């Protein structure tokens, strides 16, 4: 047995060593990189029904004869559970109910989907939750119902403030009804009400377009989306234009409409944070930003698309997914196997980079070096674009900037993005091929 005199110093030594080890561990921990962020994604929910077909629209939408909302609701919740589990996503950063016309769904359906999402993953109390609303299905009490169900941002399809244009577009509301909805929405979603307008319509002139926008700018909230009309094959507007019964404005006139709108919005304090989107007072849409920043998103509902890594299957590569388009077939598939994913495509690293480039350059921030490094660890933006003569030419023309912040379009370049992308995508593919060639 050891002399009692030895025990105390040894106990003190052991205690001291424990302290030193603990201190070393703290130091060690402080030097370690921060713990990885929880895996997160945005969530898109597609409501595929509308009251009436607009003349220009070829989105995935159906005019139902008899709608079984209960079945739709239970399939949406089932698919949300399946795909969130499949992605192993722990946090949903935003939710977007789009369509179709999701303001035709009941607030109860919206609340049920949100409750399911919160049970499957963390949905922060302040996460952006947007619902698209058509003026005809968004009266004050209905909007209040959506607010109570958890929606905190509303996107209203106003499209035009000219009744003749609204008729041409096949909309089932007047300008006055659209403004009534905007008024109610601003009370319930102050600072978080967005409006969509379309320009480049048959018969529209720069001054008639600017007049309508000016009227809207007196009344709108802090977010505006402006979409140039795309003539979509298969729509009745396309047919009318093809038959020569409707005159489309010339491309130079449409470009002037866009330019005048950007300037008008800038003059009243809006930031053009993306090609078609303008916000003031920081009202940028975080959901849409996550698309443009190449983040993961899960799409549920007929025809919804998603981009995520199906981690529960042991995969590590991102997939592009699209859900079955037709609602009844989609519901059958969800009932049979928990989801209605129709097509999955594993994206190569080059394809992911192409998307990051195309989407990132739509924003005014563009692609920062840190953002790019998340996707391309071994090839910097400088490696990709720094020595290209064509890129240098675009910089000299004042259309593009590559500097210590990253790669982005200038104000002038943002309006010409499509033509810049031809050069940039070409350069990306070439640099990628050079760097990944055998022996490099
Ligand atoms: C697909 S709709 C869904 C929301 C809602 N049903 C509505 O009509 O407002 C979303 C937006 O897409 C835009 N959009 C639809 N078809 C378009 C087209 N052919 N050209 C330009 N924008 C279009 C409209 O501005 C519309 O507000
Ligand atoms: C054109 S954007 C309008 C956004 C609106 N301006 C805003 O600021 O919130 C919305 C439309 O894009 C389509 N969309 C968006 N995300 C989608 C996804 N993941 N899958 C399928 N369609 C999607 C839907 O048709 C939706 O109605
Ligand atoms: S524009 Fe909106 S309301 Fe019109 S058909 Fe398309 S989705 Fe439906």
From TrEMBL:
PANTHER family according to UniProt: COPROPORPHYRINIGEN III OXIDASE (PTHR13932), RADICAL S-ADENOSYL METHIONINE DOMAIN-CONTAINING PROTEIN 1, MITOCHONDRIAL (PTHR13932:SF5)
Subcellular location: Mitochondrion
Annotated family: Belongs to the anaerobic coproporphyrinogen-III oxidase family. HemW subfamily.
Keyword S-adenosyl-L-methionine in record: yes
Underlying gene: RSAD1
Signal sequence coordinates: none
Entries under InterPro entries matching the protein: Aldolase_TIM, Coproporphyrinogen-III_oxidase, Elp3/MiaA/NifB-like_rSAM, HemN_C, HemW-like, rSAM, rSAM_sf
Lineage: Eukaryota, Metazoa, Chordata, Craniata, Vertebrata
Entry protein name: Radical S-adenosyl methionine domain-containing protein
GO biological process, one term: porphyrin-containing compound biosynthetic process
GO molecular function annotations of the record: 4 iron, 4 sulfur cluster binding; coproporphyrinogen oxidase activity; heme binding; metal ion binding
Domain of life: Eukaryota
One annotated Gene Ontology cellular component of this protein: mitochondrion
Protein species of origin: Chrysemys picta bellii
Role this protein plays: May be a heme chaperone, appears to bind heme. Homologous bacterial proteins do not have oxygen-independent coproporphyrinogen-III oxidase activity. Binds 1 [4Fe-4S] cluster. The cluster is coordinated with 3 cysteines and an exchangeable S-adenosyl-L-methionine.
Keywords linked to the UniProt accession: 4Fe-4S, Chaperone, Heme, Iron, Iron-sulfur, Metal-binding, Mitochondrion, S-adenosyl-L-methionine, Transit peptide
Keyword Transport part of the UniProt annotation: no
